[in-house]
Amino acid sequence: MWCYETLHPDIKLGIKGKSLYKKKTAHQNCQISKTKDFGNVLFLDGAIQTTEADEYIYHEMLVHPLLLTHPKPENVLIIGGGDGGVLREIFKHPVKEAIMVEIDRTVIDLSKKYLPKISKGSFRDNRLGLIIDDGAKYIKETPKKFDIVIIDSPDPVGPANALFSNQFYQGVSKVLKPNGVMIRQTGSVFLQSEVLKNNYRRIKKIFPQTFIQLVSIPTYIGGFFSFIIAAKKINFLKAKKSKIKKKYSKFNLKTKYYNPDIQFASLQLPNNLKELVK
Ligand code: SAM
Fold first, then answer.
1. Cα of 128 to ligand 1 centre, how many Å?
2. What is the mean pLDDT of residues 212-240?
C-alpha cells in the first residue's frame, strides 16, 4: 500500500507503507503510517509532519542554533510541537521552563503511542508547562515573557494559518524579552517560495535581526527547507562561534545533525535568496 503526501496541489510524494491510524479530530485530519524507509510517519491534513527516520535534522536545527547563541535562555515558548521532538532537544539545555501551547491533544497522544522515539519521555520533564490551546490566542493573552519562541507549526493550512499573520508576529515580539529570539519553519525554498518571501517580509518589518536558515530534510520535498530566525538584538551572522562551541561541549550535547559549523553554514544563502533578503 502507498501513503501519499498531498500538501502540494500538483505534486504527490508516495511512500510505501500501511496506515496505523486515521481520524479527524476537532482541528485536523491525523494519520500515522508505518513505512519501510522512514519508520512511522505523522501526517496532518495530508502533509508530512515528521518521520522517525529524519526528524532529528529538523528538531536539532530548530532548537540548538537559538539555545546556543542566546546568552542565557531560561524561558522557552513552543507553539505547536505536538510530536515532542522539539521538547527532547530543548531539555538537553539547562532551561528553567518550556511552555508548550499545542492546539490538538490527539497529536500528543498519537505521538506518544506511535512515535515514542521522537518525544523520548520529554512530555514527563518537570520543566514542561503544557497548554492545550490555540497558539495565536495564547500569544495575544499571555502576560509572560520569554527568551526564546519556537513556532513548530505545520504549513499555513487549517489551524496553523493564524500562526503566519502579521498580528501573530507582533504578538511574538511582545512576549519576547529585549534580547529574545524566535524561529519558525517557512517551508520548501523551491515549492513554497511565496510562504518564505511573505513571512520574511512580515517578520523583517518587526525584528531588526532576521535571517534565513537552510537545511535539507528528505521528507520535506522541494530542495532546501527554510527556517526564519528573528531576533530583537542578536546578529546570528556575527555570533561568536568559539563561544557556541564552548557551550556545545560544556552541555555535552549529543546531536546527530547539528554542530556549530553547520549552524553558520546553514545561514549562507544562494543568489536568489540574497536578492530576497536585500
Ligand atoms: N515539523 C512540522 C512542520 O514543520 O510542519 C510540524 C510538526 S508539529 C506536529 C505541528 C503541530 O502544530 C501539530 O501538533 C498541530 O496540532 C499544531 N498546531 C497547528 N496549529 C496550531 C495552533 N494554531 N496553535 C497551536 N498548535 C497548533
1. 17
2. 97
